[in-house]
Amino acid sequence: MKRIGPIVSAMVFVGALAGSAIAAADGVLVKEEGGENYCHMKFPAMRQRTLASDSPQLKRSDTGDVIDFYGACDESPTGKDQVISQRQEEQFRFGREYEDGD
């Protein structure tokens, strides 16, 4: 009987971990609905070298490079709109850092 408590606790813990892994499987770290089809989401940025590929990949969430998105709830972290937006941001950053300002 003394072993049932720790076994149940372990099962609950494993279930919670599995649930959080499923929720984060799409890459969304935070999703807060703010009205009809309007959400605030946070998700990792895409890896720069995969932005031009057919299957862009997200950075690890512990890198701190996070997109703070406000808009439609059906937005995908690796969708076409995000690819375009992040490519433009990368071009802007490159221009600011490497092009001569004179």
Strand order of the largest sheet: 1-2-3
Helix-strand category: alpha+beta
Radius of gyration: 19 Å
How far from one another are the termini? Answer: 78 Å
Oligomer: single chain
Q: Helicity range of the residues? A: 25-40%
Record the SSE blueprint.
Elements: H1 4-23, E1 30-33, E2 39-44, E3 66-71, H2 80-98
Antiparallel strand pairs: 1-2, 2-3
What would you say this structure looks like, in words?
- A hairpin with a 5-residue loop joins strand 1 and strand 2.
- The longest helix has 20 residues, at 4-23.
- The radius of gyration is 19 Å and the shape is extended.
- Helix content is 38%, strand content 16%.
- It is α+β, with helices and mostly antiparallel strands.
- A three-stranded antiparallel beta sheet has the order 1-2-3, with no helix packed on it.
- It is built from two helices and three strands, in the order αβββα.
Notable characteristics:
102 residues; alpha+beta; three-stranded antiparallel β-sheet; 2 helices; 16% strand; extended
Condensed summary:
This protein is α+β, with helices and mostly antiparallel strands and 102 residues long. Helices cover 38% and strands 16% of the residues.
